[in-house]
Amino acid sequence: MAPRQIAFDFIIFGLLCMFAFMHFVLAVYTRNRTYFLGFALGALAAACGGILRNQFAIFALFPNLPYILVKKTQIISLFLAGGWFIWACIHTHQVTKRWQTQSIRLFHRLCVVLSGVSLLVPFHLMYWFAIIFFPLITLLMGLLMYNRVISLWSVELETNMRWKITKLFADSILTYGIIHDFLNITRGTYNIQMLPYTVFVYVSIYSMVLCKDFFTSLQRNQEAKQHIMAAWEQARKNLASDLHDGVIQLTHGLEYMAEGALQAGTYDEHLLERIQSTAQQISSELRATIDTLNPSRFESTGFSQAVESLANRIQDTYGISVHTQISLDDKEIPIHLHNTLYYSIHEAVSNAIRHARATYIEISCTLDGDKIVCYVENDGVEDKNPPKIKPGHGLDIMRYRAEAAAGSCCITLTENHCFRVEVRVKRITST
């Protein structure tokens, strides 16, 4: 093999190791450590497999290495790289269905088991493990690309859709390399192995996208602080306005009626009924304001009852039909997620009332594996085209709340042309 080709493989090896180190560093400074850690381990395994594939390059450095050991290590690196790359996809919200998540976890465990077994079995058996490995990872890559294509049709708050297309392009390049080398192996031709080079392209593109995601998250953290402060100020203004326009006005009316009764020196039964009615209305206004500030009071009422109370207030106040479907018990929702889910539902309902001119709202909370899925759907979309969403404090804070709970917030247009805000969070134990 030409020295230029050997040098090129060493360059690819060095770059993949650099990418792996970069992802290890990012894993230290981010909440989604499993994502970056899985990708770092996959890149490191791919680097080792690529340099071991070129036996001239590795023997140029270590001429006394056993040939069978080198080939075994190459195949083990293939197993580990594929397992870690696929496993990292679970933590990118690219996989949403439970059976898909279980299939990927099973494949990851299979890769680890194959790597351990390959150390013990003869090389000719290990070779057949590698042959079976190629169609399995091809099927999983096809599944991931299918999910990514489906996600391109959804309407999300994220505006830079080109990054999703970039990831899809990287997945396609890697899948092409897998299929190309598998067909060459089955036909007995080994003139060109594309997989090491397509893996390098795949890791390079994903490293660029992941770095963008990391620095975008840093920017979002700064924006979140500003949005939280703005939302807090807005909440104080709303509270002052609600108290002034509702409770204060009713209190003044009650005061004037009582003063008039005292001056007249008589006790009018009709006037007393009005005073009683006004006092009840004051209590109702105060209760609504308190429920808005501290809606759940979960210690005594529970999450489900808080959502039902919100639905009843919306129906009574605005005359909008609100249907609730909560198919999980309050005990199945960790306490630290109560406020996250309730305020996300409250904000989605408020947006439906203020901006969508909805006549029907549906609130649903269900379990999907280890995740809690809550969505608010309304019929406020007037045409069949996906709505153009302008980022605002409410939608941003919904997304921040979901991400802080290791979840996601997705905004889509359903097949029935209804506008849906969906929040998915993991049922993890608060620490």
What does this structure look like?
There is one protein chain. With 431 residues, the chain is of the alpha+beta class. The protein has 2 domains: 3-221, Rhodopsin 7-helix transmembrane proteins (Rhopdopsin 7-helix transmembrane proteins, Up-down Bundle), CATH 1.20.1070; 301-431, Heat Shock Protein 90. Helices cover 68% and strands 9% of the residues. It has 12 helices and 5 strands. The protein has helices at 3-28, 33-53, 55-61, 67-88, 98-118, 123-152, 162-187, 195-264, 269-293, 303-318, 338-354, 393-404; strands at 321-326, 360-368, 371-378, 408-413, 419-426. The chain has a 5-stranded mixed beta sheet. A hairpin with a 2-residue loop joins strand 2 and strand 3 (371-378). The longest helix has 70 residues, at 195-264. The model is unreliable at 155-159 (pLDDT under 50).
CATH topology title of the largest domain: Rhopdopsin 7-helix transmembrane proteins
**CATH 4th-level superfamily of the largest domain:** Rhodopsin 7-helix transmembrane proteins
Could you give the order of strands across the largest sheet? 1-2-3-5-4
Q: Which stretches of 5+ consecutive residues score pLDDT under 50? A: 155-159
Oligomeric organization of the protein chains: single chain
Strand content: 5-15%
Number of strands: 5
Which architecture of the largest domain per CATH?
Up-down Bundle
Q: How many domains is the backbone divided into?
A: 2
Query: What is the CA-CA span between the terminal residues?
Result: 56 Å
H/I helix tally: 12
What is the 3D form? elongated
Report the sheet with the most strands, covering strand number, pairing sense and barrel closure: 5 strands, mixed
Helix content: 55-70%
Overall SS class: alpha+beta
The sequence of SSEs as H and E is HHHHHHHHHHEHEEHEE
